[in-house]
Amino acid sequence: MTKQKINGEELVELTKAALEDVKAQDIQVIDVREKHSLTDYMIIATGTSNRQINAMLEKVREAVKAKGAQPLGEEGKGDSDWVLLDLNDVIVHMMTAAARQFYDLERLWLGAEQSRSADGRHHSPENAHDYSEKLKDRE
Predict the structure, then answer these.
(1) Would 110 be classed as within a structural domain?
(2) Which of 104, 102, 73, 91 is nearest to 33 (CA)?
(3) Are the C-beta atoms of 25 and 48 separated by less than 8 Å?
(4) Does residue 3 belong to any structural domain of this protein?
(5) Does residue 39 lie in a domain region?
(6) What is the C-alpha to C-alpha distance for residues 33 and 25, in angstroms, rounded to an integer?
């Protein structure tokens, strides 16, 4: 049986649906085709705990494998605050709110076309997380 290759846009939609299914927060899709040759899209999603992040990873992995896509690699499993799943055309970053605020990948890719899931809440400086306030207190 030959499996049909799934394209980047289909991977994005499949990944978003899997993340929404396990209640990931603030799902953002960034189109980096014009800025980066390594991948076409980056998806960033927030999990409320390491346990939820692991559930997010598992759900996305299962969903893409069911459609015939094979993940190229994973980084940060276990107790990590940031897990990455490389799907070739799509790289998925699943992070705690504190890690997401600290690394601020959205700002790194500022200027790339971005879209948020319908129920996504932005974690902009106006809506800073407690972690960023702690960092400010250290300064």
Answers:
(1) yes
(2) 91
(3) yes
(4) no
(5) yes
(6) 24
Two structure tokens written together for 135: 């960092």
Domain assignment of residue 95, given as a range: 8-137
Distance (Å, rounded) from C-alpha 39 to C-alpha 110?
16
pLDDT at 62: 95
Q: Which CATH number fits the domain that encloses residue 15?
A: 3.30.460.10
Which percentage of the chain shows pLDDT scores above 90?
53
- In the chain, count H helices and then E strands: 5, 6
Q: Name the domain count of the chain.
A: 1
Number of other CB atoms surrounding residue 12 within 10 Å = 21
Note the pLDDT of residue 4. Answer: 57
The enclosing H or E element of 46 equals: strand 41-47
